């Protein structure tokens, strides 16, 4: 029996594996190679005067015939056709700053491409070539995509035209903040072999539908190690439509600073588990403030979509059109309430600020935090009218365990707003041994909630 199983197992395994050949045959005519050139000054920059170079560098260049000569730089990416009249999708980073872009089809026809629009926040770009009756790809739906499903990529890794690789979806909703700290793309993570040159190419499901645009890889060597990330098609569809119509992208904006909820904070807010986006700060005259959202609220649903972590909220809000009326479900003081929000535009000029009131003098020591009255001038620079300054943290105290730091400015302890030492002392009398309490501080100009476990023994 064992021998029979061993003989049959390769056949059974082969039957379980998908055959991608029909997808490749149907899709490849609509996949393109992107050839990008850059102006010499953009590529090389100004060459420094030889006399201004350090001695060791001057000798290096002089030994090779004088000033280094600039050379034109070029790069390669991938893309795909979405309309018969020549609209092409690729990555922003593939064509940004280009002096010339050429789109090459599989039959080696080349077309000069016009950049219709760029969106650095999503890393997407829309191009247009002068052609008709082109093969196109169908955009699928991300709500049908599941972790573990087979996916396929076609592109030009390292310039190797129209290469095919396959794998599975290994995670969804992966947050990869940009250098500016923005986080508007819930990336699909796959183990498909993606390498330089694949950027901008399509990611297919088993039905041959595009479910993402390959954008990034995690690597230590410069090549694939099985961690690749694709922009999901719902983001692609939204961005492309706006670029086609307006040449730019406008995103929804709420006007809040948010953070994750840890176990101690969850308990202090009356949650049965860590969930939601904790509002640390509400911008003045922002959509959030006008809707009645307050610092300390935990947003658990927005526009009907569950917010499991703080990273989920920008993904949802960013896809909404400014002016949209949606419901936000929040936890406030242990109660679940629903607020109606009119979504604003991301590039609004309003800047967040938080106000409290009052000040006092003296000192206090609660949970290992030594606090004093804060300097009014320094407080005003932060946009604060109240709070107390933490000057020291006692070792092995609850505050030390919670990573509270000297220099933090406390504006709330538990349910009590702290404007001076008297408020702080009053809040301390309401601490319950064995329970978690939330502390709201300003650290380096930014608001932050911290959960602290109150010890069961005496607080003295």
UniProtKB/TrEMBL annotation:
One of its GO terms (cellular component) is periplasmic space. SMART domains: PDZ. GO terms for biological process: proteolysis. The active site is at 93 (charge relay system), 123 (charge relay system), 199 (charge relay system). GO terms for molecular function: serine-type endopeptidase activity. It catalyses: Acts on substrates that are at least partially unfolded. The cleavage site P1 residue is normally between a pair of hydrophobic residues, such as Val-|-Val. Belongs to the peptidase S1C family. Gene3D superfamilies: 2.30.42.10, 2.40.10.120. It is an enzyme of class 3 (hydrolase). This is Probable periplasmic serine endoprotease DegP-like. InterPro entries: PDZ (IPR001478), PDZ_sf (IPR036034), Pept_S1C_Do (IPR011782), Peptidase_S1_PA (IPR009003), Peptidase_S1C (IPR001940). Residues 238-334, 353-445 form the PDZ domain. Keywords: Hydrolase, Periplasm, Protease, Repeat, Serine protease, Signal, Stress response. It holds the Pfam family Trypsin_2. It comes from the Bacteria. It comes from Luminiphilus syltensis NOR5-1B. It is found in: Periplasm. Its EC number is 3.4.21.107. Substrate binds at residues 93, 123, 197-199. Residues 1-16 form the signal peptide. The keyword tRNA-binding does not apply. Might be efficient in the degradation of transiently denatured and unfolded proteins which accumulate in the periplasm following stress conditions.
């Amino acid at each position: 029996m064992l021998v029979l199983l061993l003989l049959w197992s390769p056949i059974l395994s082969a039957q379980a594996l998908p055959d991608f050949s029909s997808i490749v045959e149907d899709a490849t005519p609509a996949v393109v190679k992107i050839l990008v050139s850059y102006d010499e000054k953009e590529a090389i920059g100004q060459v420094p005067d030889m006399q201004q170079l350090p001695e060791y560098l001057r000798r290096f260049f002089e030994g090779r015939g004088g000033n280094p000569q600039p050379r034109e730089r070029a790069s390669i990416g991938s893309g795909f056709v979405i309309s018969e009249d020549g609209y092409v999708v690729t990555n922003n980073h593939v064509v940004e700053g280009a002096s010339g872009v050429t789109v090459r089809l599989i039959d080696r026809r080349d077309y000069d491409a016009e950049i219709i629009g760029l969106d650095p926040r999503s890393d997407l770009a829309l191009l247009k070539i002068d052609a008709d009756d082109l093969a196109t790809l169908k955009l699928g739906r991300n709500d049908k995509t599941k972790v573990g499903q087979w996916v396929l990529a076609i592109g030009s890794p390292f310039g190797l035209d129209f290469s095919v690789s396959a794998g599975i979806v290994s995670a969804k909703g992966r947050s990869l903040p940009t250098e500016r700290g923005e986080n508007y793309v819930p990336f699909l993570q796959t183990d498909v072999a993606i390498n330089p040159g694949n950027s901008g190419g399509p990611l297919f499901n088993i039905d041959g539908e595009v479910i993402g645009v390959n954008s990034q890889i995690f690597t230590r060597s410069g090549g694939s190690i099985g961690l690749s990330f694709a922009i999901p098609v719902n983001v692609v569809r939204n961005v492309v439509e706006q670029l086609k119509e307006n040449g730019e992208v406008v995103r929804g904006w709420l006007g809040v600073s948010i953070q994750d909820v840890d176990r101690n904070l969850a308990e202090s807010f009356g949650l049965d588990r860590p969930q939601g986006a904790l509002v640390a700060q509400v911008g003045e005259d922002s959509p959030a403030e006008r809707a009645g959202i307050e610092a300390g609220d935990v947003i658990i649903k927005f526009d009907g979509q569950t917010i499991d972590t703080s990273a989920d909220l920008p993904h949802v809000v960013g896809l909404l059109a400014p002016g949209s009326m949606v419901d936000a479900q929040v936890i406030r003081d242990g109660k679940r309430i629903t607020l109606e929000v009119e979504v604003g535009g991301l590039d609004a000029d309003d800047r967040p600020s938080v106000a409290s009131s009052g000040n006092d003098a003296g000192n206090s020591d609660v949970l290992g935090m030594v606090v004093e009255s804060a300097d009014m001038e320094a407080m005003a620079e932060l946009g604060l009218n109240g709070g107390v300054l933490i000057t020291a943290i006692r070792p092995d105290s609850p505050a030390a365990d919670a990573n509270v730091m000297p220099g933090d400015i406390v504006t709330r302890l538990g349910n009590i707003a702290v404007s001076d030492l008297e408020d702080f002392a009053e809040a301390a009398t309401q601490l319950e041994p064995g329970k978690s309490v939330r502390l709201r501080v300003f650290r380096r100009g930014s608001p932050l909630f911290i959960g602290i476990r109150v010890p069961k023994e005496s607080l003295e």
